[in-house]
Amino acid sequence: MNSWGFQVDALDVARWQFGVTTVYHFLFVPLTIGLSILVAILQTLWHRTGNERYLKLTKFYGKLFLINFAMGVVTGIVQEFQFGMNWSDYSRFVGDIFGAPLAIEALVAFFLESTFIGLWIFGWDRLPKRLHLASIWAAAIGTNLSAYFILAANSFMQNPVGYRFNPTTGRAELTDFFAVLTNKVALVTFPHTLAGSFLVAGSLIVAVGLWHVIRNSDSADTGAYRFATKFGSWVVLISSALVMVTGDIQGKIMTDVQPMKMAAAEGLYTTESPASFSVLTVGSLDGSRELFAIKLPYLLSFLATGDPNGTVRGINDLQAQYASQYGAGSYTPIIPVTYWSFRFMIALGMAAAAIALLVLWTQRKGRTPTSKWLLRAGLVMPVLPLLANSFGWIFTEMGRQPWIVFGEMLTRNGVSRTVSLAEVLTSFTAFTLIYAALAVVEFKLLVRYAKAGVPDLTPAPEPVDTDDAERPLAFAY
Amino acid sequence: MELTTVWFLLVAVLFTGYFILEGFDFGVGMLLPVLGRDDRERRVLINTIGPVWDGNEVWLITAGGAMFAAFPEWYATLFSGFYLPLLLILLALIARGVAFEYRHKRPEASWKRRWDQAIFFGSLLPAILWGVAFANILRGVPLDADHEYVGGLFDLLNPYALLGGVTTLALFLTHGAVFIALKTTGDIRERAGALAVKLGVGTAVVAVAFLTWTLTIRSSAAAVVLAVGAALALVGGLAAARARREGWAFTGTAVAIALAVATLFAALFPNVLPSTLDAAGTLTATNASSTPYTLKIMTWVAVVFTPIVLAYQGWTYWVFRKRIGVAHIPQH
Lengths: 477, 332
Fold this sequence. Notes:
The structure holds 2 protein chains of 2 kinds.
Chain A: H1 10-49, H2 52-86, H3 88-123, H4 129-158, E1 163-166, E2 171-174, H5 177-181, H6 184-215, H7 222-257, H8 259-266, E3 277-283, E4 290-296, H9 299-305, H10 315-326, H11 335-362, H12 372-380, H13 383-398, E5 403-405, E6 409-410, H14 421-452
Antiparallel strand pairs in A: 1-2, 3-4, 5-6
Chain B: H1 3-35, H2 39-49, H3 53-70, H4 72-81, H5 83-102, H6 109-139, H7 159-183, H8 186-217, H9 221-242, H10 246-268, E1 271-273, E2 283-284, H11 292-319
Antiparallel strand pairs in B: 1-2
């Protein structure tokens, strides 16, 4: 206990570090996942049609993609190391199961992604066109594949399957790897995460395109930007529909495998049948007393169980059940965090879709939007689904608490026993500082390159004394 | 062969591949201020590794993942025990990776200078710290009966481990100089070739001292043979560098690094992290491993995918095989 009356231990700092570094990492990942495919689609359009507009857009958004890609790569290494550094007892406990998807992710997905991204960056005008196009697709597939393996690993923490607890070794051991890979939580979280990522990537394409359409309307490339805003808007609309469909399935699975998380999402203390969906509830600080509420009857029952009269179990019931099942203690997540992160996730995602609709409407039948308000809405647009992604992760991870592996291991038992508070504080501070500095640098670069617009395609004069057969590959660095 | 042995070998192979490949990346990064006298020269140097450095780093991520999957106890103890060195390595790799990508994104000299510093220090720190870390793995560290690391930071900074750090630093510098000589044309190629020879002599002395010390701590017949092979390969590489046979020089330093890493793993086997305290604390390939079922699945995945990865990564090197020089660097 310090002089301010609260106690900080290595566990708290390790949790904050995991939260900060993971949310930060996942600011870049959705863009990498979504833009890799969207840029590959743009390049394919160019390849098929020969229309230079698509080439310009490929190079333009490709540059933004790469500025973002670098950050995703370097912050990803931290994630793999962090399990061993801060969560070594967790690593010991689940390594037999959890390590495999991580290793496979590296071998099968990361090699593909990083090798072919190198070929794509340095292969412009040098590799045969078809091969160059194949490179961006290979990199994009690698990126999207990596999401599957890491989500399968995460899903084991939410809904452990395909294992048994071995009392001799004191750890969870794999009995069915196929069950781990086809965990129903993973199967639905994967499309949900991907759709959420395309929501971000599509929004960025719209924001940048719209800025040029409105602010730069006499540009010779307006046609390209108009195409980009429409293309991005459709991506946003389609992916927001997919986010909703997959989110709905997720809700039902969550009710089944993590009923406490569902109750925590709603701040539902007492079991209800039928249960109403809370649109907005203002409660006491710990969330246990309602002060003001707007509720939609039957909706929660329907969302959680598929039956408008279905029973949704409340926090109090579940807490009592877990206490008798796992021993005395609190098995309830921090309700205001889960309740609000769940709502922010939904609201922010829907807001992006609404703006996309507006953008399409203002460009109907060849019209050109000029509204300053639309421009402003377009500029905040990418931030909305980006934050929705962050809140989604905060919800799903905080909603799992106090467990690190649901029903098997408590978070507080997973932390490294031999790592001191000073060490964790050092690393937490170091990562936070370097991440904050890089965030500023990255954001400024993105803005700079977004403003610069699509490139001029007249080829740069070749440097002197270069024999064509000896010509090396393109220079990107 | 037992699956635990197979995975000990695979982890060894992954780290060996990582040190050969990222070894020259680190070397290029550290030689940036030495061999790159102006911005165009520095761009030549960075572009020699531009298309491949990211793929090279995946060897580390795969090695870490393989360690986690096959030897969770080893991964858990090592990563929590070597906390601060690993933290520094992570920070260095973050700064350096971003620097490659961002350096050329703005024209200002001050901007480039800052990223050049990130590349230099981001290469220097891991080049030393990996040697320190692996020397400590070989030497052993204080582990209690639960296999938990009970030492402090200063237990890791012993003279043998520091010599290990100097050795990897020297090896990667020489390897990088040889690589630059192999990949460039003109003046840089000449200077890199001359520097490789100078660096190589000192490197050979340090490396032989380190390997000899290693064999006095822990040894096996295989380790002795590998250590002698490493020394011979390094000397051969140096002779080739002197004769400006750059392909052979690079082969020499690459083989030397491979055999030096192999020496450590051969001397270590069957241990993976010896304890300097209670012998019961020692982690071995057996008591640190996953279940046979997990190892079997991982073996199948490795058997299927490793050849594919090696094929396309090797092909990339072939695609980017051309030498580059300042004449190729565009003006903008």
